[in-house]
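Notes continue from the previous slide.

Worked example: a multi-chain complex. Inputs as given:
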Amino acid sequence: MTNTNEFISLLASKLGRPTPTQAPEPVAINVPQYRSSTRKDRASLFLDNWHALGGKGMIVKSPEETMQCLKEWFGDQQATWPNKQQAIVAWDMLPTVAEFAFAALEWPLVRYSQEAQSSPDRYSLAAQAELGVTGADWGIALSGTLVVNSSPQRGRAVSLLPPLHLAFIEASKLRDNLFDVLEELTSLGMPPSAIEMISGPSRTSDIEMDLSIGVHGPIEVYVIVIDD
Amino acid sequence: MKVSLFATCLANALYPDIDLTMARILTYLGHTVDVPEGQACCGQIAFNSGYFDDAREVARTLIDSFEHSEIVVGPSGSCIAMIHHYYPTLFENEPAYLKKANDLIHKSYEFTQFVVDVLKTPDLGASYSAKATYHPSCHATRLLSIGDAPLTLMKHIKGLELVPLTEAQLCCGFGGTFSVKMPKLSTAMVAEKAQHVLDSGADLLVGVDMGCLMNISGYLEKINKPVKTMHIIQLLGEGMKS
Amino acid sequence: MTMYDPTVDQRVDKALANDFLRLATRRATDRLRNNRVKAAEELGDWQKWREAGETIRTHVVANLDFYLKQLITQIEKQGGHVHLAKTPAEAVTFVKNIVREHKAKNVIKSKSMISEEIHLNHALEDEGSTVIETDLGEYIIQIAGEPPSHIIVPAMHKTRQQVADLFEPIAGHPLTSDTPTLTRFVRNKMRESFLQGEIGITGCNFAVADTGSIVMVTNEGNGRMVSTLPRVQITLMGMERLVPSFRELDVMLNLLARSATGQKFSSYTTILTPPKQASDPDGPEEFHLVILDHNRSEILGDKTFRPALNCIRCGACFNVCPVYRQIGGHAYGSVYAGPIGAVITPLLENDWYKWGHLPFFSSLCGACSEACPVRLPLHDLLVKLRARKVVGGHTPKIEHQIFKTYRFFFTHEKTLRKALRLGSKLQWPLVRNGRISVGIPPLSNWTNSRTLPKVSPKSFMQMWSELNRN
């Protein structure tokens, strides 16, 4: 087994110097960044890009609109899901508007991290669910991307294993570009164990360059932007 | 201006009319033309094959022959690109010649670049009836960045219709010694290029590098589908006769 | 005249005779190239982004000792294990030991070029473990027993019918060859594997030195599965694949996604800082990072080729290369094909006999350098490799002789004039209809597929001096 110091000093010698102990000066980065003029523009660009990726998305202003939206998107399917009690798996805590809407619709939510004791049990729970519901920490307007941090209350598999994924995001969490998100992430200090940046459904072009949606991850993705 | 011609090895041996026409056009534009003796080749053949020492020796000869020239103009984007793009590498450990090489870089131009960008005389009063397509040679375009200079000259030729060439940016497969060292790859590449030329419907293929044109036209002739091929200098020369 | 492995020519012949391969290669590369150009234009000021990419990568490589140390320290502090492998064999041993220690039977993998570089799968299978490639393209070539033919779309040389034929024995029933059917089959089949996976092996697009994070870019979601579900995660990483901090990721991820597939970002860009925190409901409990040198430190010490370490493996150079376009990846014979493969393989493998042909798989047209998002001068590096081969004595004597002769004539212009005149007189046996159409080797390499104009009776230099004399 190669010793770390030995390995590093070899590199230093290849670079023709002793191993540095101080961090090098960071390089100046000078790229033009996209900036939207208003919050409204940002939200509509986010949704345009999300739609272009094949996702469905809507801006809602009230719990009523949220219910309307959920019924429109999932109402018919929900009626036919075989095991309704276990069909929707969600984070422990969703934005208030979301909690209210699901409660009012009387669509039961399975709480991912509370329902089962062991990881494998949780995975099968999520794998058997029809819809995974999460919040999001940021959205990136320029690319139509959701940025989702993991935490003890926020299972990573919820946005991964069910065939449908629905995310709620407050409009105030939308950012113009990835740069801004990374700045905020950095200021949080130690990152969570997973930051998932999701841009549309799972896809592949591996067979004859033919685009195919829904290989391993969600087949359909939905986002509700809460106008806060 | 006093302009020294860089004949380039290929034109010198196989297409001397190109060099003669280049001299005629520059004289017509009111410049004094000379051809310094001793010049032979930019060295690219050896350089591209990895024989840097041999290339350096040939390059030194070229540099020396143009030492007292004010302006150097050549009929090949590739040879001028060799000087501009690779001489600094070739002479990186030889300060005396590096300086001389830089002098040459600063005073040397590919023909169309010189006429359009330096002399700013895109209209040479030429006329020529043909449906032409243009192959933008790789080194002229990518290493020398001659841009649209050849097209600008062609657009000023009366009677010349320009038609687009599909995937024009693709290499024709010449690549100097590549064409002989990797003949099968080179042939596959030129076959595709030739097909695009045929598909363009042009009856004339024009370019700024005889190496590429020799490759494409040689292939078209071998498959019995010859397309008239001209270096842009030949085209201008013909067009200015009338 | 060749001083390289004769199987090279056989591979080239085979590729050139494969019409589907050539069609598929053009189709894939044209699509990816056009997507890249569009995505680059959309972002605006692409050249500025490329410059930033080059600056960041050059800085990282120039300070690799510091950033690697920082990464290792950070990962160990977080409870991860780091394994430093000097050679592919050492890297394989590290992985084998981990698998053995956990007595793991089911190993699932997401895309990793390092795993291809160290030929990991067979080694694990010999241990009695089932190893499943979960990226669709990698899965196809794993079943077919072939190396990837493209760094981004590894199975693009397969027809959908060939894919269906490969899947059928596994499905145990007939499959139609439409893409949705094939994709659905893989989705269902792979679900079981994901849920049963005991160890997940991933690649690494970038590691973040100051946070000890691993960044992974995928489209299918398999990378997320492999790094979320199994209890143990092993990540394989090339020694140079670092960024200093999150700050630089914006540039690198924009360049990578846009250059690789023309997406703004891939469907999933995942920043992992494993192992999971104790109260997290999912994620790996145990994390191993295997860092591979495999002569990268030699490249680092070689100023001429050090920039080759800047590569971010986006594949943009494949998609504009006129040579790759004609023959696809397998003819190269190496794990990494395309222009970047032609540059790094001889350096990584250090075997001129086996890999000396690669720097010549290029017409030096420069399209690769123009496409590279971190502005690698790929075609310049290829020429310099050729020079390295010559200086190292790995080219035939006759070739040295030819260039000595060339050097003599092209430094003696007056003698050259005479030689050309002589040549114009002696060329008649090769002339048909006014053109040189037949030749003996090596001239026949040209004349077999092309004619050549005759040598002019008088060279231009001759004509000019005669004109001036009169």
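Summary box: The two ends of chain A are 55 Å apart (CA to CA). Chain A has a mean pLDDT of 95.
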